[in-house]
Design a protein that fits this description.
The complex is a heterodimer of chains A (190) and B (267). Chain A has 190 residues and is an all-alpha fold. In chain A, 46% of the residues lie in helices and 0% in strands. The termini of chain A are far apart. With 267 residues, chain B is mostly helical. Classes of the chains: A mainly alpha (190), B mainly alpha (267).
């Protein structure tokens, strides 16, 4: 009798496990549609767990998920071997502008002479007004390397995490924004 | 000495004036809508005809010509309003078709008709011919209200699929459609204004893009969008296009939007 009951619960647990590990019919349908777009599309539509989370919550993560999300993203940040978070602003300008690298002008102003800058993100003209304290430099570096470590699911992509910018590249862009000699800060009173 | 100074001031004022003119001038050129309008006028003046109209004329010829292994025209093709009824056909696409048992957009429907009516093999269908046919059929919906309302279960499923793809973040730029075309709609990427579906995004396609000197269908435009965010685009006529078109055009319908002149003329 006891054995029978145990077996019953065992079977229930197995069935529940199978049911929960299955994708929902809708998710299966989505995957099928993505597959119909061809192998290259399918490959580039693959998500990491946090991209999937952002999609699931329509880019607005519930408050209770935010701390763990930020923690995971912070752990992904890597720093230059020499520990210098501010590099060469001239190299930074090239990386900031290059559409295949930072592509920052798509959304941000920078050098005020650049007429074709977008405004999806906050304007960065005169960003150097913040000074170059350790905290400002580190905040700026972290933001560029992995934007999701401070703002979950933000429009700004994780340039360092995806390898588009190396740690050294990131430091150069930090310099482009913070170095008093950079054209970004040309309008600041010295 | 005094006179010298006067000249200097005058010169400086002149320089300021010239700079002011130059700056406002360049600002005018930077407005993409005004620039498209200007380019369109230039085409009208020099060629007398817009490139989009040329594509449509080419499509008209293809539409009525007896072609394919069966040597018939596309006049019997039903775009949802009855065989050969083209007036307003684009406004209600994508929709479900009982004969193919699929939800199809204009491009996919044209391909279906070329296969089912004219007897073409799928692999023999030329993309350029489909694009010209799209331009022609679309020209019969110029400036009409968009009217895509998912009704059948298949259409509702396609809309839901489109919405899911709309929010699907992927690629090394961490993008999806919504983060720009929803959260930041009304702002600009570089100089390009970004609209949401409710604001009428997708209401100008198919269109001639003067910057590319090519006709872009809605599928071409979606492919271009995917490319620009580092995602390899889906193959033409596949479900992601139909799903996204269904989502965008149904939302544009809710926002009470009209199509622009068809084919459109844009940057």
């Amino acid at each position: 009798m006891k054995g029978k009951r145990l077996l019953f619960w065992f079977v229930v647990a197995v069935l529940l496990g199978v049911a929960l590990s299955q994708q929902s019919p809708f998710q299966q349908r989505v995957n099928q549609a993505i597959q119909s777009g061809g192998p290259e599309f399918q490959r580039s539509m693959q998500q990491d767990p946090d991209q999937a989370l952002c999609s699931q919550y329509r880019d607005r993560l519930p408050a209770e998920l935010v701390p763990a999300f930020l923690e995971r993203q912070r752990k992904l940040i890597k720093y230059p071997a020499d520990g210098k978070l501010m590099g060469d602003w001239k190299k930074g300008e090239e990386l900031f502008t290059n559409p295949r690298k930072g592509n920052c002008y798509a959304c941000h102003t920078g050098d005020p002479r650049e007429a074709g800058a977008g405004n999806m993100g906050p304007g960065l003209v005169g960003y150097g007004a913040r000074g170059t304290s350790e905290a400002v430099v580190k905040y700026t570096y972290d933001k560029i390397y992995n934007a999701w470590a401070s703002m979950p699911c933000s429009l700004m992509y994780r340039a360092g995490y995806h390898g588009i910018l190396s740690p050294e590249d990131t430091a150069h862009i930090v310099a482009f924004l913070l170095d008093p000699a950079s054209p970004v800060n040309a309008n600041l009173k010295r | 000495m005094r006179r010298n100074r006067l000249y200097r001031v005058l010169g400086l004022a002149l320089l300021g004036f010239a700079l002011g003119v130059a700056l406002t001038q360049s600002q005018q050129e930077l407005d993409p809508y005004k620039e498209a309008e200007r380019q369109r006028e230039l085409f009208r003046q020099t060629a007398g005809i817009l490139p989009g109209e040329l594509y449509a004329a080419q499509g008209e010829e293809l539409f009525y010509a007896k072609r394919g292994p069966r040597q018939v025209s596309l006049e019997a093709c039903d775009f949802g309003l009855g065989p050969g009824k083209l007036e307003g056909a684009l406004t209600q696409l994508p929709r479900y078709f009982a004969d193919t048992r699929r939800v199809e957009d204009l491009e996919t429907r044209i391909v279906s008709c070329m296969v089912r009516l004219q007897g073409f093999r799928l692999e023999d269908i030329k993309r350029d011919e489909v694009k010209a046919l799209v331009a022609y059929v679309a020209s019969k919906s110029s400036e009409m209200p968009i009217n895509v309302v998912p009704r059948t279960s298949q259409e509702v499923a396609m809309y839901n699929l489109g919405r899911e793809l709309w929010y699907h973040r992927a690629g090394d730029r961490d993008m999806n459609c919504a983060i720009c075309h929803e959260s930041y709609a009304g702002r600009k990427v570089r100089l390009s204004p970004v609209r949401s579906p409710r604001q009428g995004l997708s209401n100008e396609w198919p269109a001639y893009r003067f910057e590319a000197d090519k006709l872009y269908t809605l599928q071409d435009r979606i492919a271009f969008c995917y490319e620009s965010i580092g995602i390899r685009p889906p193959v033409y006529y596949s479900e992601p296009y139909i799903a996204l078109s269904m989502y965008m055009l149904a939302e544009a319908t809710k926002g009470k939007n009209r199509f622009t002149e068809m084919p459109g003329f844009t940057r």
